[in-house]
């Protein structure tokens, strides 16, 4: 099956198709060269260890200096995009007003005395929702935020509720900029001030910024009490936090990460620019004994390891692999969630459905325009609502 058929790619004209084909070929060459260099480095490392000839190993290290030393890159749905195109729409972490990536007013760290578990996987524990897709919108910060809030809510209530990134994109605009980027700490501030977030189901994602739906914004389903920042450049502190809950983290995403397929991304030097918000969902060691962080991304389930990646843990680089220890934070929650409010129903939100029922169209015109809305329950449709 061809790339275009596999990923249902459609281009506007022949010129666009030709451009994308050339980009695809360039990316194939890049993926092949990085994978080949990685294999050669592993072979030279083994050779060097047995013969004490380090020159060859050093040569391959220098060849890989521009990459993240990924064990494996692969073709995915992003293979027809340049890194410049991809990074302009699939990242979105912005520094705060003071130039940092954390709240200057937040100094507590309640997990300081925690002894981290040897390993933890919050996905297997049921605290992480399925992988989502930010698509062509720089809203990674919103997905990182909802991921940690979803985890905190699960640990506090036992319920895993998928929360609305679109609400953050549309409504959290005082300091964050929707698809133009944002910061997780600022999003936590918004959630606290607003009294909570609506669900993904009610305020669904559509990958563009728009007007804030005030009625849905008021439908606060999951709340938090506060949030805390993990001490900077401290992987031990990060492990303490992640051993207790999923944690929002910022990383430096590179060109190689666009095509990440599998394996552990090694720490290689200082992170020069945090640009992507993701979720630290656990940590463990791989088959070779290499410690890693399990990270949930927001580029869909076809990217990476079913939407996840592994970053080297406990490295000699103080910032951690890809800067994962530079700007980590997590929500705090112990209080109950707000009382459920009715779901907004209809085009203009003039009517509502009580919790436990869902707004749906009773009668439509040619499958395009709904003439009458109703509240769908498990037993049927209730009384009609205004459009």
TrEMBL record:
One Pfam family matching this protein: Inhibitor_I29
Gene Ontology BP term (one): proteolysis
Domain Cathepsin propeptide inhibitor, residue spans: 2-86
Domain of life: Eukaryota
InterPro entries for this protein: Papain-like_cys_pep_sf, Pept_asp_AS, Pept_cys_AS, Pept_his_AS, Peptidase_C1A, Peptidase_C1A_C, Peptidase_C1A_papain-like, Prot_inhib_I29
Family classification: Belongs to the peptidase C1 family.
Record-given protein name: Cysteine proteinase
Organism: Coccomyxa subellipsoidea (strain C-169) (Green microalga)
């Amino acid at each position: 099956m061809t790339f275009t058929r596999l990923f249902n790619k459609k281009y506007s004209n022949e010129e666009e198709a030709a451009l994308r084909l050339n980009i695809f070929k360039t990316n194939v060459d890049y993926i092949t060269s990085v994978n080949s260099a990685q294999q050669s480095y592993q072979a030279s490392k083994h050779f060097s260890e047995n013969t004490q000839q380090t020159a060859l190993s050093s040569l391959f290290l220098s060849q890989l200096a521009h990459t993240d030393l990924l064990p494996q890159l692969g073709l995915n749905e992003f293979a027809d995009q340049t890194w410049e195109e991809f990074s302009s729409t699939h990242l979105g972490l912005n520094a705060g007003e003071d130039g940092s990536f954390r709240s200057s007013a937040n100094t507590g760290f309640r997990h300081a005395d925690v002894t981290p578990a040897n390993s933890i996987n919050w996905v297997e524990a049921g605290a992480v929702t399925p992988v989502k897709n930010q698509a062509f919108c720089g809203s990674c910060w919103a997905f990182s935020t909802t991921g940690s809030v979803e985890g905190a809510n699960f640990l506090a209530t036992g319920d895993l509720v998928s929360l609305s990134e679109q609400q953050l994109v549309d409504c959290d605009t005082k300091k964050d900029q929707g698809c133009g980027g944002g910061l997780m700490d600022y999003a936590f501030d918004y959630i606290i001030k607003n009294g909570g977030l609506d669900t993904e189901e009610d305020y669904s994602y559509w990958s563009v910024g728009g007007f804030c739906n005030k009625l849905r914004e008021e439908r606060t389903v999951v709340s938090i009490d506060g949030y805390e920042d993990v001490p900077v450049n401290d992987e031990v502190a990060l492990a303490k936090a992640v051993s207790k809950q999923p944690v929002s983290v910022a990383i430096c995403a590179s060109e190689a990460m666009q095509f990440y397929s599998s394996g552990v991304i090694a720490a290689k030097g200082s992170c020069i620019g945090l640009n992507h918000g993701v979720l630290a969902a656990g940590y463990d060691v791989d088959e070779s004994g290499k410690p890693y962080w399990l990270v949930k991304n927001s580029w869909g389930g076809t990217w990476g390891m079913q939407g996840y990646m592994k970053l080297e843990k406990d490295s000699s680089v103080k910032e951690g692999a890809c800067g994962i220890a530079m700007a980590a934070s997590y929500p705090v929650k112990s209080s109950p969630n707000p009382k459920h409010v009715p779901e907004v129903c209809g085009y203009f939100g003039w009517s509502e459905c009580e919790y436990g029922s869902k707004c749906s169209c009773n009668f439509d015109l040619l499958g395009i325009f709904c003439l009458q809305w109703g509240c769908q329950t498990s037993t049927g449709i209730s009384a009609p609502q205004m459009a």
